[in-house]
Amino acid sequence: MPGPLEGLRVLDFTWKLAGPFCTMILADLGAEVIKIEPVGITEDERGAGPYVQGVSTYFFSINRGKKSVSLNLKHPTGVDIVRRLVPKVDILVENFTPGTMGRLGLGYAELEPLNPGLIYAALSGFGQTGPYRNRHAVDVIIQGISGLMSITGEPGRPPVRVGVSLADLTGGVFAAIGILAALEARHRTGRGQYVDVGMLDAVLALLENPIVRYAATGQVPGPLGSRHPLITPFQAFPTKDGYIVVAGVRDWQLFCAKLGRLDLMFDERFQTNESRTEHHAQLEPILEEIFRQKTTAEWLSELEEEVAFVAPVNTIDRVLADPHVQARGSILELPLPGGREGSLKVPAPPPRFSRTPTRVERPAPILGEHTLEVLTGLAGLSPAEVEELAAEGIVGLGR
């Protein structure tokens, strides 16, 4: 069965993480994604290591299911080939510094007349407008300037970056959402449009609670570790062999009984969630000492959901082995590209569709793997013309 975006075609001018993550989502949902890459780059220029049989695992993890066309956009013929492809696609995605595509003659103003239905998505650090538009941005820059790092980490300790490239990934997700919304608008109007997504805006959208709390109280939020500002207990606690996370209790008296601390049951400081939050500094060391006395598995078996919401703090190897993750098919194993032996594990697409299921059937492509297919099938070139362009260094054929 076809995926939900089957029949849609994407020209992908993205690199690094945010843009490729966006177009990977579109590919996972069934769109044909044609990735435009420079001629002659090495695998380490495509993405970071570790490398497996010469393949960048970084590139592999976010470019599955795409087609690769190797094209020299610094040559007028390369630009002309893109202009031939534009009428045949639905979506174009780029994440260069604002103005780069325009300088190549491939901005929205130049391409919209060729395809009025084109949805042109531009993803950048700070968006296409504003005083920061031309600033370069990597993930940690956005995590810093957005305020996210100021509320991440332990109280009294230096700011901490979130453990994944959250600004990049969030930018990619919101770009995909914008594209899908523009597709729905095109169904009504027949016209495409320009979609401008800034990573800073995307991260600010995730800071809804800290922002509204500051607006309501005037108090600047700070880091709380794994705590919640309004719920107690709500954090990770060390156990005899690891960590357990508690996300609130349903019945304080029963919770205390399960902990073997009847003296805490009617302690006035801890009777309500509000009082426990107020007296967190007194409660936290008590609970830390209690949880250290048993293993994570023992606590999980004792603290049912009727008592409290708990979970282990898994390491990556343990979550991959988790029976629920395996039952859901949440991890895929894809072969290495180019006929290499072996495979790598990657996360599966999160949405599950009843009628149009997602399919991830191909790994990330080798450089230029689909140049001949795309240029003869969509750009109207003959195989001989493509071979001639390859000899001139205008295209690469993935050999």
How would you describe this structure to a colleague?
By secondary structure, the chain is of the alpha/beta class. Helix content is 37%, strand content 16%. The chain has a seven-stranded mixed beta sheet, with helices on both faces. Strands 9-10-11 form a three-stranded antiparallel beta sheet, with helices on one face. A two-stranded antiparallel sheet has the order 3-4. Helix 8 (166-189) crosses helix 9. The longest helix is centred in the middle third of the chain and has 24 residues, at 166-189.
Biggest β-sheet: count, sense, barrel? 7 strands, mixed
Number of strands: 14
Class from secondary-structure proportions: alpha/beta
Share of helix among residues?
25-40%
Number of helices: 18
Overall pLDDT confidence: 97
N-to-C CA distance:
32 Å
Please tell me what the overall shape is: elongated
Enumerate the strands of the largest sheet in spatial order, edge to edge or round the barrel: 8-7-6-1-2-5-14
Rg computed from alpha carbons, rounded to a whole number of angstroms: 25 Å
Summarize the model shown.
The protein is α/β, with parallel strands linked by helices and 399 residues long.
Which helices and strands, and how do they pair?
Blueprint: E1 9-13, H1 18-28, E2 32-37, H2 43-46, E3 51-52, E4 55-56, H3 57-62, E5 67-71, H4 76-85, E6 91-94, H5 100-103, H6 108-111, E7 119-124, H7 139-145, H8 166-189, E8 194-198, H9 199-206, H10 208-217, E9 234-238, E10 243-249, H11 252-259, H12 273-278, H13 280-291, H14 296-302, E11 308-312, H15 316-320, H16 323-328, E12 331-335, E13 343-347, H17 371-377, H18 383-391, E14 395-396
Helix pairs in contact: 1-8, 8-9
